[in-house]
Specification:
This protein has helices at residues 2-7, 21-27, 32-40, and strands at residues 11-19, 44-49, 53-59, 64-70, 76-79, 85-93, 96-106, 109-120, 123-130, 133-143. By secondary structure, it is mainly beta. This is Oidioi.mRNA.OKI2018_I69.chr2.g4103.t1.cds.
């Protein structure tokens, strides 16, 4: 089931716009200068469905992050942007993909972040939520992954 849904998200995506990122980055404890840079930074995603897992690649001018999450919902241990150990799981709700990461560094504490992937009018919407703050990245498909 997971791979069938993930196939719809396959491809390279480029950030087109963002909503409420400043508030989410405040929740993460980022200093003002870092929030300002993040607001204007171009973000690219690549989503590659494989037989038993979903590969992600996120790229900015500063960082490239790769991860692979099993469709089975098993916990995957990954490293966060600040070197912290994150426990992530991938699940599906209808046509939406959901990644929950536990152990995200947010200031002096560790938080849970939920990212919901939705396809709306051919665009990828990434809704990232920590506590009561949600930011949405809207991505335009750059190209599809060849199968």
């Amino acid at each position: 089931m997971g791979k069938d849904i993930a196939e719809k998200y396959a491809g390279k995506w480029r950030q087109e716009s963002v909503e409420n990122l400043k508030e989410l980055n405040k929740k993460l404890g980022l200093p003002k200068v870092a929030r300002k840079i993040a607001k204007n930074m171009e973000v690219k995603f690549e989503i590659i469905p494989e037989e038993s897992s979903l590969k992600f690649k996120m790229k900015t001018k500063i960082i490239t992050k790769k991860s692979s999450l099993p469709y089975s919902g098993e916990v995957f241990e990954d490293e966060g942007m600040n070197g912290e150990k994150i426990q992530s799981t991938l699940s599906f709700d209808g046509e939406d993909m959901i990644i929950v990461g536990k152990g995200i560094k947010a200031g002096d504490s560790l938080k849970e972040m939920k990212t919901v992937f939705k396809l709306i009018d051919g665009k990828l919407h990434l809704e990232q939520t920590i506590d009561d703050v949600t930011a949405t990245r809207i991505m335009k498909r750059k190209e599809e992954v060849s199968k």
